[in-house]
Amino acid sequence: MLPLTDFLSYHRGVSEACDIAIVGAGAAGLAAAIFAGEAAQAAGGPRPRILLLDGAKTIGAKILVAGGGRCNVTHDEVRPEDFQAPRTIVRNVLAAFDAQATVRWMRAMGVELKREDTGKLFPVTDSARTVLDALLRRCDELGVELRREWRVTGIERDAGDRKDGRGDAETRGRGEGDCKVQSAERSVQSGGEAAAVDSESLAPSAPQSEISNLKSAICNPPSFPASPRPRVPASAPLLPASSDAPFTLRHADGELLASRVILATGGRSLPRTGSDGAGWAIARRMGHTVTDTFPALVPLVLADGFFHATISGLSHEAELATFVEGKRVDRRTGSLLWTHFGISGPVAMDASRFWVMAHGRKQAAELRCSFLPGESFEQAEKWLIDAAGARPRASVGKLVAERLPQRLADALLRHAGIDPARPSGQLSREHRRGLAHALTALPLPVVRDRGWNYAEVTAGGVPVEEVDFRTMASRKVPGLFLAGEILDCDGRIGGFNFQWAWATGYLAGRGAVRSLRRDSGSV
Fold first, then answer.
1. Which pLDDT score is estimated for 314?
2. What DSSP character marks residue 105?
3. Is the pLDDT of residue 229 over 60?
4. What whole-number distance in Å separates Cα of residue 124 and Cα of residue 127?
5. How far apart are CA 75 and CA 350, in angstroms?
6. Radius of gyration of the chain from Cα atoms?
7. How many whole angstroms separate alpha carbon 506 and alpha carbon 499?
8. What pTM value is reported for the model?
9. What is the DSSP string of 22-65?
10. Residues with Cβ < 8 Å from 191, sequence gap 6 or more?
């Protein structure tokens, strides 16, 4: 009789198997691996085999470049309002693992954090390498197996476990002889098409008794081996511990069987770090929705001829308001940085998603800047009238420079058609009102964003409504979990997106272990 392990390897190209496969070793994937390992350790008994897979040679590149190489781990106050996603879901996710939990977790791994005036929390070393090294070290301590340059090209799920009105209950309710082994109903290989092939077509030359043995083994697999889990050679794959039919993950060198899969592949921001959006194609072909995706937290390019280049490098407090089809959809205040190409800085980065998404959807979008945050046109005009009345011989440039940086005051006045040297008492009503408008609602001629190479995060992805917020389990595919930037939830600048990664990784890692133990009868 052909041994089951040889049967799998020969007929399906399977090189090995694991209990939990985590696809993507960024912030969310690393967190999921650690929390899965810790949950299994705390539960005692046999340990699941956890594999962390990443297509990049350099693991955690996005962590290393975050925060100017310092890694803004989280923020001291994180609220649902800081994210663009359904508030109730975000609130529940953050409640499970909040900013203080992140601080305690980092401290437990030897990473002390410090708070800056902005509320951002950084490692006291001011080095992102400190954070990444701690995460990788903890994975190693927990026995998580990290595979670099292991790019997943497709994932399949056995058809008997699909959600088509039957699902898990029917599969588990079958007897040994009735359990039908099929290949994946949905193929998610790049460029592949869906297929459903039964066991007879998998190996037409194999004796029927061997196929029956294969059916029996997948329907009634063994439990995990005792901890510590031995490393096994590729020629002797482990069998998944779950009573669910396994996932098959395809890669360049063959296939991997897994009982549970956590997708933490990220979005498309900073593609040089390995983020290319490939996980969305996998999720979509497994039955998930993927909303339109756009660069977020991205600098914006202004039209040539505007005054930005003359004040490049200047930063100051400003208020930006975004209007879509004439309706204001966002308004926020923060530090604005003028650059040779346009605008950047926290307030511009935060506002960018609204302009970028509207522009991408072919909607009329406008960004207006107030240099006097919180003040109306009427208040600004009154200030100009009062100041000119009190000091009519003072130049307009000097008066405006009392509230704005001198370089900005001069550039803004010239843009409004006013000579900065003109005495304030000689300012016409038309020019005064034009200046008041420029001070409180100056239209910025945005022509485009700087693209994925400069975006810090992705807007869009798999809707969070398609996962169970208590575990990050897919509501579409049993045994699949999603975490991090692959989901349609993006936070503002300041450590919020890392907090989302840690929190969803926490829920997904623990959720996968609980699911595995429940189905193996360990709980």
1. 98
2. H
3. no
4. 8
5. 15
6. 28
7. 10
8. 0.81
9. EE--SHHHHHHHHHHHHHHHHH-SSPPPEEEE-S-SSTTHHHHH
10. none
The whole-angstrom separation of Cα 261 and Cα 246 is 10
Beta carbons of 237 and 9 less than 8 angstroms apart: yes
Query: What number of helices (H) and strands (E) belong to the chain?
Result: 16, 24
Q: For residue 18, give both structure tokens.
A: 């694991």
For 153, the token pair is: 């090209």
CA dihedral 492→493→496→501, nearest 10 degrees, is 100
CB atoms within 10 A of CB 145: 16
Q: Do the beta carbons of residue 125 and residue 32 sit within 8 Å?
A: no
d(CA 508, CA 236): 28
- Cα–Cα distance for residue pair 90/81, rounded to 1 Å: 9
Which of 474, 484, 455, 435 lies closest to 65, judged by CA?
A: 455
Provide, rounded to the nearest whole percent, the portion of the chain with pLDDT above 70: 80
- Residue 438's SS3 state is helix
Torsional sign, CA 453, 457, 461, 467: positive
Name which of 135, 49, 23 is nearest 484 in CA terms. Answer: 23
